[in-house]
Design goal:
alpha/beta, extended, 19% strand
Amino acid sequence: MNEKRVYRIWRREGLKVPQKQPKRGRLWLNDGSCVRLRPQHPNHVWSYDFVMDRTHDGKPFRMLCVIDEFTRECLAIRVERRLNARIVLEVLADLFLSHGPPDHIRSDNGPEFIEKALRGWLTRLGVKTLYIEPGSPWENGYCESFNSKLRDELLAREIFYTMKEAKSKRSVNVALRCSLNL
């Protein structure tokens, strides 16, 4: 059956043929009110977020993942039982020394990312912060995509008995390879 015949049958039965929906821009919100800043070149926009998992004994640990949105490369992964703003600042300082500071850095509104000391330090370095709207993880899509790959390719397949195993080079290398598959 071709499309015209289906259309005729729909009309004859009194059904309305659904109108073709226009494609929505990938980086637009549903109401079109806000456009997310698109990365233009390497070191333009970085994003960072946490991934949480548990060791075999049920104790939680967190992974801080920092992504360059243009190259979609994972720049750093830090694994700790607790990650606070001081550790986030340490990781960013190391990255700024090796890669240079980005123009913008995107994150959610977690307490580790909005602490005054961290925001002040970023402002002094000329890095603009981009906070996503609460409850809108799609605004941090590159980082969320990486976190999903990390969970599928490493965390769902491995059982970590100790923190030493979770921090091992082998685990981090598997995690970094996830960024190449985005």
